[in-house]
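Troubleshooting: if your tokenizer reports a length mismatch, compare your output against this known-good record of 513 residues.
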Amino acid sequence: MQSQLPAVAVALGALLFSLPAFGASCESLSSVTLPDTTITLAQSVAAGEFVRPPGPAPPGSRNAPDQDKNLPAFCRVAATIKPTSDSDIKIEIWLPAGSTWNNKFRADGNGGWTGSINYNSLAEGLRDGFATAMTDTGHQGGSGSFALGHPEKIIDFGYRAVHEMTVKAKAIIQAYYGQAPTLSLWNGCSAGGKQGLKEAQSFPQDYGAIVAGAPVNDSVGRAFGAMWIAQAVHQTEASYIPPEKFPFIHKAVLEACDASDGVKDGVIENPMRCRFDPATIACKGAEANDCLTSAQVETARKIYSGVIHARTKEVIFPGLMPGSELGWATQAGPRPFGAAADYFRFIVFKNPDWDYKTLNFDTDVALAYQDDHDTINATNADLTAFFKRGGKILQYQGWSDQQVSAGNSPKYYNSVLEKMGDAAKLAESYRLFMVPGMGHCGGGEGTDTFDKIGALEQWVTTKKAPDQIVASRVIAGKVVRTRPLCPYPQIAVYKGSGSTDEAANFSCEAGAR
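Known-good structure output:
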């Protein structure tokens, strides 16, 4: 992959040289010539007049009634990019009309295997004044089946579609406004968080600021993690934990660890300090919904333990954290987690009928990581080039994440710290905020509402890294609690007086890695 960088840089220089020096009309953008690219639409859209194309909406993209009527006027550009004969990368770029542009570029990431463009994401960026863009990553649909027999599409999905979109979007912005954006910002969670880290690792010139939420940067490890849980849950009929027991397990975990931070509030501030043993809720007689059988105790232990290499006993991928139990149905339900199973079906073993019970946590580990060859994974800890350009990363993840173990974010952060070797210096460019009680990208029982983009923009503008981010818990439209989110490894500590539902009564203090 790295060998492509010089060629890309030359191509970008050539295409920018061919663009007009001054702003162009929206419709004239259809005649802009870019390498491997066909502009399929360049259309002025009046304020409140955007009409979504017919067809099924991608997950999270269904709009509320009249939502689009609040959109300002903009220029909508769509294009298809074909860097290889098997590539078919769709992108859209929405450009605020006239003086409503804030002079910045924002691109949004995808989720899972999603091959679609989310109009809600584009609309959000547009309303905030950004020139905004998104790609379908080179395929359609939410399954990994597109990868079977299409190695170039795997590369498109892994990193090329996002990079190509970024280069072409910047060129379109230059053509339309007659100037480059003053800041290029990436915003993504889950697969989108991974995409952001991949950009920082491999294309450090693309973005100056990156929001990376709950990144699936170790996609191979996460896939093993999901199959580890599936095998544990379905090892025997007795191993299965019925979903109606999850709230009971969660309650027991809170009773054991909730108050360890000095505040009993229904969330665990630092699950890494929680030493809950499922054996403490083992059935003493007949099985019931308020206890676990001996087989279920072992299943729960494996869910928390993470993936253990069968031969070396190394932890390949961390387990789900104490406090995540209300979301266990995602991975510990009747069937294996589909997004992870697709990785083995269509990427590693290239067999749609592959049986997850055959996965070997010794020999298949090396096979899968070698097969990826830094294509979908984004675990490179060397961010030197990105930081030298002044780049900033704001990473966040919920401690109760039910899809991607929350332990994955500290693991990557610590790998970067080990590589860079200077915690104070790293903190000037990269901060991780763990959110107690929050699930995957949001939800859960914690304070999951916070302005990560605003915090990152302020960081870039003031050159001062955020010492905390105030987050809210919102129920039925009402804020019921605020808390400071602290840069890892710090945690929020109650000052000892005042309401525990007010962020001002907490301070960020040293925690435990």
